[in-house]
Automatic annotation (TrEMBL):
Organism expressing this protein natively: Candidatus Nanoclepta minutus
Name of this protein: PUA domain-containing protein
InterPro entries xrefs: PUA, PUA-like_sf, PUA_sf, TGT_C2, TGT_C2_sf, Uncharacterised_CHP00451
NCBIfam families for the chain: unchar_dom_2
PROSITE patterns: PUA
Pfam families: PUA (PF01472), TGT_C2 (PF14810)
MF terms in GO: RNA binding
Organism placement in taxonomy: Archaea, Nanobdellota, Candidatus Nanoclepta
Domain of life per record: Archaea
Domain PUA as annotated: residue spans: 80-154
Length: 156
């Protein structure tokens, strides 16, 4: 039951049948943690590593860095990616937000509050974050926060 919910959330959130493909590939190693009080899904683990946490207000999955690597691997470039300049990498690796002026390329379909994958020019995952603006706004602004970072590197 819980696996079908996780699959549906991932399919809705990221499209491209990402949920179907992830559940199919990792079906034997996915564990779902359910709240004893509410009965709702709280966390999803793959191979005993945190894949993501369910955001209680939206019901969406906020992937860990590990989860971001898995999801990004199932998405074609440039889907849900924000490519940043090399100048910003040291700051992002410290968990600081991505500012509009450092965005080099972005998926045109990104909307505010979407989960995005912050990558360098070689499509290496740097961080997982939440878009604060739409792609068109990020492209047109020279100031302001484009992405609020949630997870960097191996940190949770």
């Amino acid at each position: 039951m819980e696996l079908s919910i996780v699959r549906a959330i991932l399919n809705y959130q990221f499209g491209d049948k990402v949920g179907d493909r992830i559940v199919e590939k990792y079906k034997d190693s996915i564990k779902v943690e359910v709240s004893k009080n509410t009965g709702r899904i709280r966390r999803v683990y793959i191979d005993d590593k945190l894949f993501g946490t369910i955001e209680p207000t939206t019901g969406f999955i906020i992937p860990s860095f590990f989860g971001g690597e898995i999801i990004k691997g199932f998405l074609e470039y440039p889907k849900y990616r924000v490519v940043v300049s090399d100048d910003s990498l040291p700051f992002i690796k410290e968990g600081k937000s991505v500012f509009c002026k450092f965005v080099v390329e972005i998926d045109d379909s990104i909307l505010p509050e979407d989960i995005v994958f912050v990558v360098d020019g070689k499509d290496n995952l740097i961080a997982v974050g939440i878009a604060r603006l739409s792609a068109s706004e990020i492209k047109s602004f020279n100031r302001g926060v484009a992405v609020k970072i949630k997870h960097v590197g191996g940190n949770i």
